[in-house]
Design brief:
Radius of gyration: 22 Å
Shape: globular
Number of helices: 18
Low-confidence stretches: none
Largest sheet: 5 strands, parallel
Strand order of the largest sheet: 2-1-3-4-5
Mean pLDDT: 92
Helix content: 55-70%
CATH architecture of the largest domain: 3-Layer(aba) Sandwich
Number of strands: 5
Length: 352
């Protein structure tokens, strides 16, 4: 059955632009009072958004995991609520998506696509339109996290830095600062952007400031005794979200590993060269966006084709892998982890 899903994904990809135009044309025809006031720029954004919906649908089909599409629609529901869109906007768009697919795909392929659309729509009806804060839930450093975010949102990175350094000097474990302050604050900043409470510029500022503060903790991070193990940490080409991967690299440094952090948007050939030169025991690959899963799969295939996997085990992580428990197997990895702490545990098992 998986081959049918993959064929459906490929068929949609081939006609994605055409499909997006059809969907938006029907939106504007049936809901002209809603959409026409936005003019040509608004129409262009609608076509872009319809393309996003199709991209996430194809990635879910290609991975044979409807959760990837269902979770995306739940994310969009919160986003649209923050933008004050009518609740029927997305369901109407998806109905036009169904119509366009029905007219375009072969019968057996459209049935596969409809299965995922129906599953996602059912989940969408029960998904919340708001998100609770990431700060206070099961967080032993709630006060520090809250004050840290407040400072960042004021644009006061000096105060944010000072409170983190003081906490470290007072004996707070650096790993706890990473998990309960940096990780939680990044998720909270993302929630505030998703719910239209802060701008994308503020979100970028907070991320850049956190990366700066993380670098100030390096005297603590690199003080650990080395254990002789080596790791390469990377994001696939096109992936611009690197802070999660950097947290993973720093966690491993704290545990005595020698890490080689390649960062965002790393070309495949650069990753392969680094694995060979560093004689890495583990390659950690991060992907935040679902539409980069195919690049993760492609990178892993190249590592194995080059024979580098005889020494190097492959660990994957990031948002898509957290919501689709079997996805790591689909892309050919040796293991996956939800966060930096679990990545360390998984890698220790792989490197034995």
């Amino acid at each position: 059955m998986n081959i049918i899903y993959q064929q459906a994904a490929q068929a949609i990809r081939q006609k994605q632009n055409e499909l997006a135009e059809i969907i938006v044309a029907r939106q504007y025809e049936s809901q002209s009072a809603v959409w026409k006031p936005f003019g040509d720029p608004g129409r262009a954004k609608s076509v872009r958004d319809a393309g996003y919906h199709l991209t996430y649908l194809t990635e879910a089909l290609a991975a044979a995991d409807p959760a990837l599409f269902s979770e995306y629609l739940a994310w969009v529901k919160v986003l649209f609520a923050g933008l004050k869109f009518s609740e029927d906007v997305l369901p109407t768009t998806l109905e036009f998506t169904r119509q366009a697919l029905a007219e375009t795909l072969e019968p057996h392929l459209k049935l596969a696509a409809f299965e995922y659309l129906d599953t996602a729509l059912t989940a969408y009806q029960h998904a919340p339109s708001t998100l609770v804060s990431f700060i206070e839930t099961d967080n032993p450093l709630t006060d520090l996290t809250r004050h840290y975010i407040d400072a960042l949102l004021r644009g006061d990175r000096q105060s944010a830095s000072r409170m983190i350094l003081e906490s470290a000097e007072q004996g707070t474990a650096i790993k706890d600062i990473y998990l309960y302050v940096f990780q939680r604050s990044q998720r909270e900043i993302g929630r505030l952007w998703q719910t239209n409470q802060i701008s994308v510029a503020q979100e970028h500022y907070c991320t850049a400031a956190t990366q700066m503060v993380m670098s100030q903790l390096y005297p603590y991070i690199f003080a650990s005794e080395r254990n002789g193990r080596h790791m390469v940490v990377t994001c696939v080409g096109g992936e611009l979200h690197e802070i999660g991967a950097r947290m993973v690299a720093d966690f491993f440094e704290m545990d005595g590993w020698d890490t080689y952090f390649l960062g965002a948007n790393t070309p495949m050939e650069g990753v392969l060269r680094a694995l060979s030169e560093r004689e890495a025991d583990v390659l950690a690959v991060s992907a935040t966006m679902t539409f980069h899963i195919d690049k993760v799969s492609g990178l892993i295939a190249e590592v194995r084709r080059a024979g580098l996997d005889e020494r190097t085990k492959i660990l994957v992580g990031g948002y898509p892998f957290n919501i689709a428990p079997n996805l790591w197997q689909s892309v050919g990895a040796d293991a996956f982890a939800h966060d930096a702490r679990q990545a360390l545990i998984a890698a220790e098992g792989l490197a034995k």
